[in-house]
Design a protein that fits this description.
The protein is mostly helical. The protein has one domain. It contains 13 helices and no strands. α10 packs antiparallel against α12. The longest helix has about 30 residues. The radius of gyration is 21 Å and the shape is globular.
Length: about 290
């Protein structure tokens, strides 16, 4: 892959992963345009592009992510303390009270992310072959981009919610997780879909964005681990590695800018522009499928 192609794909990944226009759909379309589907090492490049955008998430939300990690460790520790108290209470007359494990907003946040990740992982794993085949044609990305346009219109016109972790149910988290799993289809914007569903469920706008991006971390990392077994990275020449890493860095930088932009967009209810854009690109992709 030439350097300029890697840089173009990095820009597309950084923009489309976080703005509600579907990175998978745009990557699938541009792979056809640039004929990247015929080149070796494509799966490795896809993984690296997602690693780049993950780096952007870690940079923007590093305080929240660090707090979630620490509280996650605390949840595990308190769980085993309760297990110990269970057996202690069985053997002793002096009964000890159990520790309330989910006792803070961040601990609830951790549990919500875990609940959302489960259906995402199940759908992504079971539908992996379908998703790969869907990305090999322009028709599916085109249709899914039209669906993204509809979702964004609905989200833009929905009243603002106020729910933060303490008022969000685990069933709501499961619904958002299912939407993230379905949004692995090329053309369905992951961020657009999960944010739109979160807003429809009454999530606070700022938290909906934060939740959407943070819950993507285990999903993307899990998908990358599953894909690693199918690649032969050692066969790639040094100049290809350089080009891939350059694209990764570009994806991270552009992704950082787009996350910041998305926070402003959601506060201002400005999804209409992206809805129109997705509709136009979706129509173009569908027409191209039948004409090319």
């Amino acid at each position: 892959m030439e350097l300029w192609k890697a840089l173009v794909m990095g820009v597309i990944q950084g923009i489309a992963e976080f703005l509600p226009i579907s990175s998978s759909g745009h990557l699938a379309i541009f792979k056809h345009i640039l004929h990247l589907d015929l080149e070796s090492g494509g799966m490795m490049f896809d993984i690296l592009l997602h690693v780049g955008t993950l780096l952007a998430v870690f940079v923007v939300f590093y305080k929240d992510i660090w707090e979630l990690i620490m509280e996650g460790i605390g949840i595990v520790i308190d769980f085993f303390k309760n297990v110990g108290r269970f057996f202690q209470n069985l053997l002793s007359k002096d009964k000890k009270e159990y520790i309330r494990i989910v006792d803070s907003e961040y601990r609830k946040f951790v549990m919500l992310v875990i609940v959302s990740t489960i259906p995402t992982g199940v759908i992504g794993y079971l539908g992996k072959d379908i998703i790969e085949r869907a990305g090999q044609t322009l028709l599916i990305p085109g249709l899914c981009l039209l669906a993204t346009a509809v979702l964004l219109v609905i989200a833009d016109r929905f009243n603002q919610g106020t729910n933060k972790p303490d008022r969000i149910s685990y069933s709501d988290a499961a619904i958002v997780g299912c939407s993230q799993g379905i949004a692995t289809l090329p053309g369905l914007s992951r961020s657009g879909t999960t944010i739109a569903i979160s807003l429809l469920l009454g999530f606070d706008k700022n938290f909906a964005v934060k939740y959407s991006f943070i819950m993507s971390i285990p999903a993307i990392m899990g998908a990358a681990v599953l894909d690693l077994k199918d690649i032969q990275a050692a066969s790639l020449p040094a100049h290809v590695w350089f080009n891939y890493l350059a694209g990764t860095v570009v994806a991270a930088i552009v992704g950082y800018i787009c996350i910041k932009t998305m926070l402003v967009i959601v506060r201002g209810k400005k999804f209409t522009f992206f809805s129109i854009y997705c509709f136009i690109v979706g129509i173009i992709a569908i027409v191209a499928y039948f004409l090319l």
